[in-house]
Write a structure and sequence with these properties.
The chain is 50% helix and 15% strand. The chain contains 28 helices and 21 strands. Strand 2 and strand 3 form a beta hairpin.
Length: 810
């Protein structure tokens, strides 16, 4: 027998780099000889790499990347707690005392959002903008200098200076990026403000639910509310200060204030959290779900590609035998597999990198992030991640064919089917996990669609409005405006009812109890009083919204006038929570609502109980709510709701006729607020569902491949069975049974894995459990059907081929 050394001339050993280049050249030629294999493999890898690169890019930009401020690790969010120990906002006066009495904090500030009507020039229309009302020290805390001009100073804040700092977006859209805008006068709610500066592009507001257009000084006169206010607060620690030391000092100071001011601060303490956690907290769970789904898709793609490589390797068994005969060892053959895997992985990662951009387009629907001013883009970190995936695939993909070659050399031909079967079962199991997640998300979504928000959206419109303080500077003037506008709206053809409210339901965010109250005469210290959300509404609001009046009466323009007997309406949750064993109607409440017509200490009589509405989101239970009438407390800004049989085109003109200088009115269908509350869930279903369908498609291809391969391996057995009298249906049953066994084994494994990992999905579910039988039944049936469908063609081919042909082919 000739050996390799006798049949080939001796050649010098190539350096490692030259040998690698030689392997790559051979790999490229070998792959080009199989274009179908190359295209299918590259596209499959592109799906997995693209999904994971997009998920990583979103995770890095929205969660892992440091906040865009100098020394972000020194930034903390401050909060207060009361007797219920739940974090709430900070009273401005308390924060001023914290600032004066602490030594470990470099700066502190409170801030809050509010909408204003902005007029850039005298004859320009009013544009509604979101402002961040902030202390001057707010900019010292974040330490981001303006791109143009300057920010306002503390003495300007204390003096109630009319100053405004624009965001880059507002400066470019409304002022055409004109540098001469600095020093120009604009009007906010008809009050003159001077533009001091422009913040740089990409400046982020430290609140995950609001994207402001400008910043103005926070009025201490109007918003400090003594020691009972509730505003967001942020602080910067001094260099070298740990969170524990700062927390201990803050708690000590808060304890001293509780002793000094027992009427307002008793039972209140203070706390802090890293600002990074606060700004990214709502993004964590949806982003982790995205990463988990994309990782499963990558594993499925890898299993599919490994199966394709094994099939190709079996087709090259003659080539491998000749290589071994000529003296090629396992290292040389494995090196060839690695080179081919490198070519395929690099090509797949390159295509996947561009496919990742498509994933990023869906992320904002799935992970809302208002303060993310710049759109998500692929960057150098995403490119490095895709390159790392290509390197990992280069190492992992050659493992299966190398194990197959080792098994063949040791005479273990059963390793062919075992390896491919294990890969297919793995594909099925991972696909089941993705499909179960999709099924549960869909079930949750439909449960939410069936959940009543507590009001009727059909034939209802809404629009927001704000009253300029300069002309509507007293509560009676506000009341007169709303009364006249509602009267005119009610007389508009087609309008059935109209009303106004401070805050509509389903407004999103972490809404929580906002104001202390007590049953009149209870004499509970203010810090220990129960808390309820307090809203203001007009007569007719309940009818316009379709909120049922359970007992009592609605507010009235005739009976509920300023200075008369004060009245309130509560929702059913309030009555169940705080009025158990007591008749609601006639109960007197002590609600701290102070204005120019409502002095401290007046009582509010409950005259009605209404049905619950979902104040935050459809998946959040209603909270206790008290409604006060705008006929007695006024309303400087809110939302109008009109129930009409018409189109609502005349509404804007009705508002303009009453006050031509009021802000522009944008009328929208009321059902849009329900759809907006479901937006992130729709995004989750689209993204995870898309991954699940791709996974199911890859799984079908994998099952088809292994069943067809196994049928060809057993062709001799099939021929003998046929020759001995086995019918075509029996032959088909053997092949179909193998496909169903693969699908069944993978399904069982997938269900087990999903049940173990289901707690990660809990926050995204509503009204269903992880072991929901309907979802599981549907997924199991779908996967078994796919397994059966993928096995039909191989079974038909095996059953219709003549026995002599099978024996000859085998």
């Amino acid at each position: 027998m000739l050996t390799a050394s006798m049949t080939q001339p001796q050649t010098p050993v190539l350096p490692w780099s030259n040998a690698m280049l030689s392997d790559l050249r051979h790999a490229i030629r070998a792959i080009l000889r199989s274009p179908v294999f190359a295209i299918s493999t590259i596209l499959t890898l592109a799906l997995g790499v693209g999904a994971n690169t997009g998920a990583f890019s979103a995770l890095n930009s929205l969660l892992l990347k440091s906040l865009p401020y100098p020394d972000p690790e020194r930034l903390v969010a401050l909060y207060e707690t009361t007797v219920d120990r739940k974090p709430r906002g900070v009273a401005e006066q308390n924060l001023l005392d914290w600032r004066a009495r602490t030594a470990l904090f470099e700066a502190m500030a409170v801030y809050q959002p509010r909408s204003f009507g902005l007029t850039a020039a005298d004859r320009d229309p009013v544009t509604v903008i979101q402002t961040g009302m902030v202390m001057a020290e707010f900019f010292h805390v974040l330490q981001v200098p303006p791109a143009l001009g300057r920010v306002f100073r503390e003495e300007e804040e204390v003096a109630e200076s009319r100053a405004i700092v624009l965001t880059d977006h507002l400066w470019r859209t409304m002022f055409s990026a004109d540098p001469s805008a600095i020093g120009r006068k604009v009007s906010l709610n008809e009050e003159p403000y001077t533009i001091l500066g422009v913040m740089p592009a990409g400046f982020e507001y430290p609140m995950d639910r609001v994207l402001p257009d400008a910043f103005i000084p926070l009025s201490r006169k109007d918003y400090c509310c003594g020691r009972l206010g509730s505003q967001d607060a942020v602080a910067r620690l001094r260099p070298g200060t740990s969170l524990e030391r700062a927390r201990t000092e803050l708690e000590s100071v808060a304890g001293g204030l509780a002793a000094e001011h027992p009427d307002t601060n008793q039972g209140r303490t203070a706390g802090l959290r890293p600002l990074q956690d606060v700004m990214t907290g709502t993004r964590r769970e949806p982003l982790f779900l995205l990463v988990a789904a994309s990782s499963l898709l990558l594993l499925i793609a890898c299993a599919n590609v490994a199966g394709l490589i094994l099939a190709r390797c079996l087709g090259r068994s003659r080539e491998m035998a000749i290589r071994a005969y000529l003296g090629a060892g396992l290292r040389h053959i494995a090196g060839q597999f690695v080179a081919e895997a490198a070519v395929l992985s690099i090509a797949g990662a390159a295509c996947g990198f561009f496919a990742a951009g498509l994933v990023l387009q869906f992320v904002p629907q799935f992970v809302p992030s208002p303060n993310q001013t710049a759109p998500l883009r692929l960057d150098a970190a995403a490119f490095a991640f895709a390159a790392a995936l290509a390197m990992a695939l280069t190492i992992l993909l050659p493992v299966a064919p190398t194990l197959l070659v080792v098994g063949e050399w040791h005479g273990s031909r059963g390793s062919r089917s075992a390896l491919r079967g294990a890969l297919v079962v793995t594909q099925v199991a991972l696909s089941v996990v993705l499909l179960l997640a999709t099924g549960l998300l869909l079930r949750s979504f439909f449960r939410l669609l069936a959940t009543s928000p507590g009001f009727q959206t059909a034939n209802a419109l809404e629009f927001g409005i704000g009253l300029p303080e300069k002309r509507y500077d007293t509560t009676p003037k506000e009341i007169a405006f709303h009364r006249e506008l509602l009267r005119r709206l009610a007389q508009t053809p087609g309008v059935e009812s109209a009303g106004a409210v401070s805050r509509l339901p389903l407004r999103g965010g972490n809404i929580g109890p906002a104001g202390p109250f007590q049953i009149w005469g209870a004499n509970i210290p203010i810090p220990q009083r129960p808390r309820s959300w307090v809203n203001t509404a007009s007569p007719g609001y309940l009818a316009a919204m379709g909120i049922p009046l359970v007992e009592g009466r609605d507010f009235s323009w005739q009976d509920d006038r300023p200075g008369y007997h004060r009245v309130a309406i509560v929702n059913q949750t309030f009555a169940r929570t705080y009025l158990r064993g007591r008749r609601a109607l006639g109960t007197l409440l002590d609600v701290r609502w102070v204005s120019d017509v409502n002095p401290l200490g007046v009582t509010w009589e409950i005259v009605g109980v209404v049905g619950d509405t979902r104040q935050a989101n459809l998946d959040r239970d209603p909270i206790p709510e008290i409604f006060l009438s705008i006929t007695q407390v006024g309303m400087d800004g809110g939302v109008y709701v009109i129930r009409t049989r018409g189109s609502g085109n005349a509404i804007s003109s009705v508002v303009a006729e009453l006050d031509p200088r009021i802000q522009r009115v944008g009328v929208k269908p009321l059902h849009l607020i329900v759809e907006a509350s479901l937006g992130s869930r729709r995004g989750a279903i689209r993204l995870v569902g898309g991954f699940g369908l791709l996974a199911l498609l890859l799984t079908a291809v994998g099952i088809y491949g292994i069943v067809a391969f196994r049928a060809s391996e057993r062709s001799r057995e099939m021929a003998i069975r046929s020759a001995l009298g086995a019918s075509a249906s029996e032959i088909r049953g053997l092949v179909l049974g193998h496909g169903l066994w693969l699908a069944g084994a993978g399904t069982a494994a997938g269900v087990a894995v999903f049940l173990m990992a289901s707690p990660l999905l809990k926050s995204q579910l509503y009204g269903v459990g992880a072991a929901d039988p309907m979802s599981m039944g549907a997924v199991v049936a779908a996967v078994l059907a796919v397994g059966l469908g993928a096995s039909i063609a191989p079974s038909r081919r095996a059953a219709t081929t003549a026995p002599m042909d099978l024996l000859r082919d085998s």
